[in-house]
Amino acid sequence: MEPVQVGLLGLGTVGGGTVNVLKRNAQEIARRAGRGIEITHAAARDINKKRICDTDGIQLTVDPFEVVSNPYVDIVVELIGGDSLALELVMQAIDNGKHVVTANKALIAKHGNEIFAAAQKKGVMVAFEAAVAGGIPIIKAIREGLSGNQIKWLAGIINGTGNFILTEMRDKGRDFADVLKEAQELGYAEADPTFDVEGIDAAHKLTILASIAFGIPLQFEKAYTEGITTITRDDVSYAEELGYRIKHLGVSRKTEKGIELRVHPTLIPERRLIANVDGVMNAVLVNGDAVGPTLYYGAGAGDEPTASAVVADVVDVVRALTSDPENRVPHLAFQADALSDTPILSMDDVETAYYLRMNASDKPGVLAEVTKVLGDHDISIEAIIQKEPEGEKKEASVIMLTHQVLEKNMNDAISKIESLDAIHDQVTRIRMETLSSD
C-alpha cells in the first residue's frame, strides 16, 4: 500500500519537530497506522533557512496554497499559527477534500464551529490534539477515554509562561516584572507577552476543552479572562502562609444555571497535585461522575512534545481514511446535531470563595468596619491574617479568606470596602478553588 502523503504548512519549531518525529519513528508509526506516512510537501516563508530538521525528500515552497491544492497531498498539517491566513488555508484544504491536522488553538477556539461544519459537509476530518496542552493527550482523554462520564468540571494550568512566572515568584520571592523579563530572555514569553500573562492563550484552550467536555459549541467570546500582572510576591507569600498556592487556572464547570468558562489567578490548596505543577509544565484536572478526578500532566509546549500530538492526530486520520465519515469520532466529542445550547454564565453568576488583601489604617475599629460590610453582603469569613506595619508605615495589610459567595455580591462588597476612609488603595481579590471531587 502506498504511503499517505502529508503536506506541512510551517517549518518552525513544531513543524521541524514533526518532521523529526515522523522520520525517526517511521517504522513504529507505520505499524500503528497500518501504512507508511511521509511528509512530501512543505511550505515555509524562507525555504533556505537553517532548520532543526532534515528536509531531504520534501518539496519546499514559499506558497502554502500550493500545498493545500496539491492533488497528491492527502493530509494537510497547519502549523503557521494565527487565525486569518490559517483559516483561509484550512478552509481551502477542506474544500479540496483533504483532511486537516492543526496545532492552532486560536483558529479552533474562534472559528472551529465553521471549520467543523465545512469538514462534515465534505466528509473529511479535522484533528487538533496539539492545540491544547502541547504533548498531553487531553482532548483524546476527554473525548474518548472519558466518553462514559458526565463531566462535572475541569481545571487546567494550560499556559507554561504564566506557570513559570508564578513558580519563580513563589520559590525565589521575585517580583512579577523581574521574572517576566527572564521568561522573555529564555524564550518562554514573547516580546509582547499579553496573550500569555493576560490569560488569552489559556482561554483559547479552555474554550476547546469545555466544548468537548460538555457538548456545547465553541464560544471563545464568552470566556472570562483575567491576567496575573497584578499578583505580588506578598500575595504569593500570604497564600503559602494560609496553605494555598496561586496558579493561573482555566476553570469550566457545569452548573444548574449554565456553564462557567473562566481564566484567572486562583488559590488552590497546596496539598492538591495540580498545585505542585511547577515551571513551564501543564496539567489538566478533569472530574467525571463515574471515574472521579483524573489528572493529566506533561509538557505544554516545545518542538517534539507538541509534534507528538500532531503525529498522533495524523495516525488517527490515516487509520480512519477508509471509514464511513458518519461513524468517525465527532470533532467535539458529541454528534454535531446533538450539541447543547446550555448558556455560558456571566462572572456575576459564578459562585466561588475569595482571597482578599487590603491596606488599612493601623487603628482600632477598622477590622470591624470591614467585617460589617462583608456581613451585610452575606459573606462569611474563613480566615484572617493581619500584618503589622513595618518601619514608618502607618498602615497594616489585612488578608482574608471567605467562604463561597456570588461574584456580584463580592463586587458590591469590595466597592463598599474601598470607599471606607480607613482603606487605602484598591482591594486585591483572587478567587479560590478547592478542586475537591464534589
Observed structural traits:
about 450 residues, alpha/beta, Rossmann fold, Dihydrodipicolinate Reductase, domain 2, Alpha-Beta Plaits, 3 domains, eleven-stranded mixed beta sheet, six-stranded parallel beta sheet, 17 strands, about 35% helix, elongated
Describe the secondary-structure layout.
Elements (H helix, E strand, L loop, with lengths): L3 E6 L3 H12 L1 H8 L3 E7 L15 E3 L2 H5 L6 E4 L6 H11 L3 E4 L2 H18 L3 E2 L10 H8 L5 E7 L2 H13 L3 H10 L8 H4 L2 H15 L9 E2 L7 H9 L2 E11 L4 E11 L11 E8 L3 E8 L3 H17 L31 E11 L4 H11 L4 E7 L7 E8 L2 E2 H12 L4 E10 L6
Parallel strand pairs: 1-2, 1-4, 2-3, 4-5, 5-6, 8-10, 10-17
Antiparallel strand pairs: 7-9, 7-11, 9-10, 11-12, 13-15, 13-16, 13-17, 14-15
Helix pairs in contact: 1-12, 4-5, 5-10, 7-8, 13-14
Q: Structural class, from helix and strand content?
A: alpha/beta
Tell me the name of the CATH class of the largest domain.
Answer: Alpha Beta
Rg result: 24 Å
What name does CATH use for the topology of the largest domain?
Rossmann fold
Low-confidence stretches: none
Number of domains: 3
Assign the CATH architecture of the largest domain.
3-Layer(aba) Sandwich
